[in-house]
Amino acid sequence: MNIGVPHEVMIGEARVALTPMACQTLVDAGHKVYVQRDAGTDSGYADAEYSEIGTNLVDDAEQLYQAASLIVKVKQPLESDLRYLRDDHILFSYLHLAADIELIHKMSDIGLTAIPFESVSDEHGAYPLLAPMSQVAGRIAAIRGASLLFRNRGGRGVLLGGIDGAVDGQVVVIGAGVAGSHAAAAAAELGAQVDVLDLKQDKLDALKRQYPAISTHISSAELIEELCLQADLVVGAVLVAGRRAPVILKQSVISRMNPGSVIVDISIDQGGCVEGIRTTTSEELCYVDSGVILSAVPNMPAAVARTSSQALSSAILPYVVELAGCSAEALANFPEHCEEKVQALYRARALYRGELVDEVLQQEVDSASSQSTG
Question: In which domain, by residue range, is 281 found?
Answer without folding.
Answer: 131-297
